[in-house]
Amino acid sequence: MLLVLSMNLQAFAQINFEPGYFISNNGVKTNCLIRNVDWKNNPTSIDYKADAASEIKKKDIGAIKEFGIENASKYVRFSVKIDRSPSDINRLTSNRNPDFENAILFLKVLAEGRANLYKYEDGNLVRYFFSRENQGNPEQLVYKQYISSPGNLGANNYFRQQLTVLKSEAVNQKTLEKLEYKQKDLTSIFLKYNGGNSENTAVGPAKQSTASLNLKVIAGAGFASLKVVDSYQTRDFGQDPLYNAGLEVEYIFPFNKNKWAMFAAPVYQSYKTNNAKIGTVSANNASLNTIEIPVGARHYMFLGKTPKIFLEAGYNASINLGSNYIQKSGFYAQSEGRLDTSTCGNFFIGTGFDYKRYSIGFRYNFKRNPLKHYQYQGADLSTYGITLGFKVL
Q1: The model's pTM
Q2: Where does a domain end: 165, 197, 229?
Q3: Exposed, middle or buried by CB within 10 Å (0-12, 13-18, 19+), for 284?
Q4: How confident is the model at residue 11 (pLDDT cuts 50, 70, 90)?
């Protein structure tokens, strides 16, 4: 069901094709509309249309040597030597020298002028390249962490020496010595150098996705379905309403047009039922008071500049505040137990709509067994409901 819903939402959601261009291998420049996904990892192909009414076509890195999206980004194809040494501390070696390999890549232009700065990103791998006028293919700026001695880390900061060619009135030795291998620091140096030596400065992304942190007040209502099973019978407690309220913290990632987010939403939740029936006896009841802590990932699909729909999935943990059930099979036979959701998390899926400060979402929580601590009993507890949210930060 969710897969069908996802396909429908994807079809309905806006696909951003923005004015841009590409240059073919023969040097011909084609103005067109390019699908701007605000790449986190450097792309190897683009989707484009001749105009808004045209069909979508594709060009890969072997067919074009440059492309750009107006007021967003520019990529140029180069044949370069790149060091892919890992930065994960558990995979570092004692070799301080870069291990170069040949590659044909689209490099993202961060600054352009007398000196050019480029970026390549692939997962956790981030490398910067630079070139000067009439130099040809860019050279990687070298920064590499390594194990200098048992238990100690060292860093090869050769990039600072490479950039001494930029020394000028605008860029002095002291500035270079403090330079970090970060986009902000490197871009600043190139802007200063180009601004002091050329009318050209930077053509990097004029509008770039940035990370953001949202805080929401949320409240919701839904239904819980509970069944208790033992060696003799299954008792169906039916469906009864549940209520919850709490906060949600959401982190929106700074890539792919801010379409991806992680969230955590601790809420107080209350559920009570007494409507189960077994034959002619109707004397069963259950209550559940918990702190639910769903943590998950969310994918947004924009319907315009502000309204957007989302899909989400994740895992729900729980803190038990006081829960029990009572089962009566007759006038005298009675059993009692404690429902403990803290021993059984569960997965969830959901969808919803977000507009400015307001949001509404539907979430389904898969079954869990709050009686797993009992040897001869078990339970199936599943919930679903609607949640309203208001962004306060």
Answers
A1: 0.71
A2: 197
A3: buried
A4: very low
